[in-house]
Amino acid sequence: MRYVVSAIIMVLTCLTLSTAQATTSAERESLRGLAGVAVVIEVINSDAQADGLSEEAVLTAVELILKSSGIRVLSQLESFSTPSAPLLYVRINTMKTELAYAVDLHVALNQRVSLVQRPEHKMSAATYELSAVGMYGTHLLRDLISDGVEPDVKTFATDFLAVNPR
Question: Which of 39, 82, 100, 108 could hold 13 in an S-S bridge, CB 3.0 to 4.6 Å?
Answer without folding.
Answer: 100
